Amino acid sequence: VSAEWNREAEIKFNTAIVHSLSIPTQWDESNGVYLGFDGQVHTKPDYMEHIYTDLSIWDIFRTQIPFIIFHDSQRANDIIHSIMLNVEQGGDLPKWPFANIYTNCMIGSHADIM
Fold first, then answer.
1. If we measure between CA atoms, which residue out of 20, 90, 100 comes closest to residue 54?
2. SS3 of residue 100 by DSSP
3. What is the C-alpha to C-alpha distance for residues 51 and 43, in angstroms, rounded to an integer?
4. CB 64, CB 79: distance < 8 Å
5. I need a labelling partner for 19 at 20 to 30 A (CA). Which of 52, 54, 68, 85 fits?
């Protein structure tokens, strides 16, 4: 294992971090309102910084979510609370929420693990 500083590797690493944090999508407006899974306009709860959607849960629950938990715990909490708001407003645990709809394009319920 090399302990030498490598500028090229650092750039690649930091670029990968930025790419990994570009999804899920921040769904709320600057004033905290968002369109919920029930088609109604809601205001995000005060304990959340943002509402998130576009969660490819099958693809992220084993890798990206643990990384986000360690890298940005507030974002991780907001993602989990966003999923719970999907349940409250839409009635089901999402498999792959996209914007404010259920795509139902995944088998299983991978959000259970999150």
1. 100
2. coil
3. 10
4. no
5. 85
Query: d(Cα 92, Cα 5) in Å, to the nearest integer?
Result: 48
SS (H, E, C) 8-33: HHHHHHHHHHHHHCCCCEECCCCCCE
Residue-level length of the chain: 114
Q: How far is CA 26 from CA 3, 50, 74, 78, 99, in A?
A: 37, 6, 13, 10, 10
Q: What angle do CA 104, 106, 110 make, to 5 degrees?
A: 105
CB atoms within 10 A of CB 101: 15
pTM score above 0.85: no
Place of tokens 């930091």: 14
Distance CA 84, CA 92 (A): 9
pLDDT (tens digit per residue) in 17-73: 888 888 888 899 999 999 999 999 999 999 999 999 888 767 776 778 888 888 888
Residue pair 84/52 in contact by the 8 Å Cβ criterion: no
Catalogue all structural domains in the chain, each as residue range(s) with its CATH number.
24-112 (1.20.1050)
